[in-house]
Each structure stands twice: as C-alpha cells, then as structure tokens.
Amino acid sequence: MKWGIFGTSFISGVMAEAIKSDSESELYAVAGRSEGNLAAFAKQHSVEKTFSDYDLLLSDEQVDIIYIALPNHLHHDFIIKAAQQGKAVLCEKSLSIDMEKTELALQAVREHQVFFAEGLMYLHHPLIRELVAVLESGEIGELRSIHTSYIASIAQFVNPESKGALYNLGCYPVSLLYLVVKTMLGEQAFENRTLKAMSRRGADNNICESSLLMSFGEQNTAYVHTAEDHGLKHQFTVLGSKGCITMESNPWLPASENHFSVEIYETSKRDIAVTAQGDAFFYQVRQVRKAVEAGQKELVSPCATWQDSYNIMRLLTEWESLGAF
Questions:
Q1: Strand order through the sheet with 2-6
Q2: Which residues of 235-255 are buried (b: 16+ CB within 10 A; e: fewer)?
Q3: Per-residue pLDDT tens for 212-265?
Q4: CATH architecture, domain 2-121
Q5: Distance CA 11, CA 17 (A)
Q6: Are 272 and 127 in contact (CB under 8 A)?
Q7: Which end of the chain is more exposed for a tag (fewer CB within 10 A), N or C?
Q8: In whole angstroms, what is the distance from residue 236 CA to residue 238 CA?
C-alpha cells in the first residue's frame, strides 16, 4: 500500500516513520512547497518521489493513500481534491476550522465514495480499547461528569490560520469526551447540550487558552480546558455514580506502556496497565491500511467515523463561538 504525504512538517516525519514501520506499507512520495525541505525530508525518510506541486502527487496512479499534514485551514481543500482523484485520505486533526468547510469535505468523500479518516491517532491505540471496555462494564456506574485538560507550549510552531488552541489541542479532550459520552449514553445525549466558555486570545488574535463548561443528557456535565502557550500537561477523569476513571499516562500520546486507574468511591482503587507494540501513529497506519485493503470507506468505533468527526467539529466550533475574557 503506497502512501503519499502532503507537507514536510514535524508531524509528517512522525508519520513517515510509522508508515515505514508497517511491513505492508510503503512511503512512496511526499509533496511540499520548499525544494530544500523536500530534499531533506526525502533523504531522511528514504522517499522515492518528491513533488513541489500537490496536484502532481494526487495524479500519480501509484499512490493509494494520501496523508494530509498541512495546516488546518487547508485540510478541506485537499480532502476534496484527493477524493476527486479517487484516493483514500487520512487527514490530520482537526478536520477543518469551521462547519462549512467540514461539510464540503465530507460531501466530497461521500460523493466519490473514497476512504476517509481524521487523524485522531490515539483512538487507534489499545489503551483506548481497554478504556472503552471498562466504561462498557458498568463498573463505575452511570456517567455523571467528565473533567479534562490538555495544554502544550506549541503556539510558536502553528500557522495562525489554523485558528489556535481549540483546533490544535482542544480537539483531543473534546474527541475523548465525545467517545466516553457516546459509549456510556449514546451520541443523542448531546442533543440538549448547553455550553459556556471563557477564552483568552493571543498575539495572533486566536484563542490561545479556554475553559468550557457543558451540560448535556439528563444530569451530566463536562469541564474542558486547553492552552497552547504554556506547559505540557494532560488530565482526563470520568466520574460515575459508583466510581471514577483517571488516565494516569497521557491518553493522547499513548506509547508502549500506559496506565489508568479505576477507583470505587471509598472502597478500592486499582491500576490498569496497557502494554502495546508501539505508539498511536504505528497503530493508526496499520488500521488505516487494513481498512483501505478491505474496501471500507471509514473506520469503526472507537476510532472516529465520518459522523463522529462531524459531531466533534460541531462541538469545537460551538466552543470557539462563545467569546473571550
């Protein structure tokens, strides 16, 4: 299965190594705007073909899967172009930066019936499957609340047009929150949601820090926080009627050794260790490749389906719309 990569950024390099680690995949081509960066990337990752024109890579009949690692505001345009060429598409998160672009992108993959997945890579990892299994077991009772935060000092590395912290980092806690609620209550629990937020804008006028309070379902709440100009810190806790789950290791950067705890209030607490063959990118490449080989058009839960990606983008754009402090 031959992969073509759009972009030569840091994340492109991470994915290049993940593609090379899959024995049934080949890193065949890369496209970018800078000849110097292209040459360096191709040499470092042993890429057969380079293109300074994205359309030329898309028209190469040898390419099976396009991985889009360009800034968020460009995602929808290249998803549409890849779909028109009949290519399978793996696009970095977030899918887009607004609902209009999101709908155009998903309309194209439906119309041309190509495989599409959003690159929420951590959802492919065994850690998330183990978490879902505990959620489904009923051990912590009925869902009451979710508390989560993800911060990282990345503001200086991202394109201002990608619109800041919510789409670069907030997509991680929001997508995991979405999975937990979907698993425990069903996605219809969000139908009567209410959102309130406080946000701070950075020098580029994008939201660089924000806190979201959401109510949904019959008696459920969630608190979500993200920031892109300080720290590296994760937090994710699911509070149930009988107990709680806390992600001890970073759920959004799972590796070969991972941990979360299950606490039954005032009774017991146990650690669940999840070992794996590699990181989330390794599993993402393998599962996307297998899905394309099998003729599937989208992934299955706990990975993000087309509808999941749409619903996650809806939550992110609603969050963004709620102003600043």
A1: 49-51, 26-31, 2-6, 65-68, 88-92, 116-119
A2: bbbbbbeebbbbbeebbbbbe
A3: 999 999 889 999 999 999 999 999 999 999 999 999 999 999 999 999 999 999
A4: 3-Layer(aba) Sandwich (3.40)
A5: 10
A6: no
A7: C
A8: 7
Average pLDDT of the chain is: 97
Joined together, the tokens standing for residue 300 give 């299955």
Question: What's the half-sphere exposure (Cβ side, CA atoms, 13 Å) at 263?
Answer: 12
Is-contact 27 3, C-beta < 8 A?
yes
Structure tokens given for 243: 């107990």
pLDDT, tens digit (0-9, with 9 covering 90-100), for 264-276: 999 999 999 999 9
109 Cα distance to chain centroid? 18
Output the six-digit token pair for 139. Answer: 């051990």
Class of domain 123-283+308-320: alpha beta
Q: Does the global pTM surpass 0.90? A: yes
Residue 292 above 90 pLDDT?
yes
Cα end-to-end distance, the chain, whole Å: 49
Two tokens, residue 179: 């999975």
